[in-house]
Amino acid sequence: MDLDSVKHTLEALADSLSGRLERIDAHHHRTPDADSAERAVELENEDVINSLEAGGLDELAKVRAALARIDAGTYQTCSVCGGEIDPRRLEAVPYTDRCIRCAESNT
Q1: What letters, b where the CB count within 10 A reaches 16 and e where it falls short, cover 44-68?
Q2: Lower CB density within 10 Å: C or N end of the chain?
Q3: pTM listed for this prediction
């Protein structure tokens, strides 16, 4: 597995997520619409935006943790059982910290 390439991919993903989170943050700081009907729609959309923000923050934390594991030399090691994470799993979910067995048993 080419860890330099994985690191590059994770850094690009972190940048993308950071940009998305900045746009969400800007949305939170904008002035609400004065029109009551429009304001009702904005409130309904707020739940969706909050969910996207939470998901983005969680994914960004996982990406940063994966980058730290690369630097520490433990990227391909399962954080639960200590076994090797299949490279195919890491290709599919590059920020995972668990082998498939441990991920499935923790659901």
Answers
A1: eeeeeeeeebeebeebbebbeebbe
A2: C
A3: 0.81
